[in-house]
Amino acid sequence: QVQLVESGGGLVQAGGSLRLSCAASGRTSVTYAVGWFRQAPGKEREFLASVRWYTGITDYADSVKGRFTISRDNAKSTVYLQMDSLKPEDTGVYSCAAKRTISGAFDFWGQGTQVTVSS
User: Fold this and answer.
1) How many CB atoms are closer than 10 A to CB 96?
2) How far, in Å, CA of 48 to CA of 55, rounded?
3) Are 79 and 70 contacting, i.e. CB atoms less than 8 angstroms apart?
């Protein structure tokens, strides 16, 4: 099992920045990739970005490309999401998740952290 804990959410005005952290513990050696997702009230969960644990290859949704940056620190077993130029539509609960294979599901999820962007 892999345990994930998110932190760094909060209230920020439009145009501001936040950095989210996802601290991993447990069997991190079996992790293929870690991704960030968000969900606004009444909406489906949305994929934002992912990073492959060992190669560092990243993937981004078009909605955040150029504004958000995902990175990982293997020594600290932590994945970050740097969010710049935030917009009110970025508001939601942000969660990180880990998967074991390239095609498999994200099996392990954190509890989520709230991000609110005011206009």
Assistant:
1) 31
2) 19
3) yes
Report residue 27 as tokens: 């069997």
- Tens-digit pLDDT profile for residues 69-91: 999 999 999 999 999 999 999 99
CA distance 10 to 18: 8
Amino acid symbol at 109: W
Tens-digit pLDDT profile for residues 43-56: 999 999 999 999 99
- Structure-derived torsion over alpha carbons of residues 67, 37, 114, 27, reported in degrees to the nearest 10: -120
C-alpha distances out from residue 6 to 53, 55, 60, Å: 17, 22, 19
Q: Are 111 and 41 in contact (CB under 8 A)?
A: no
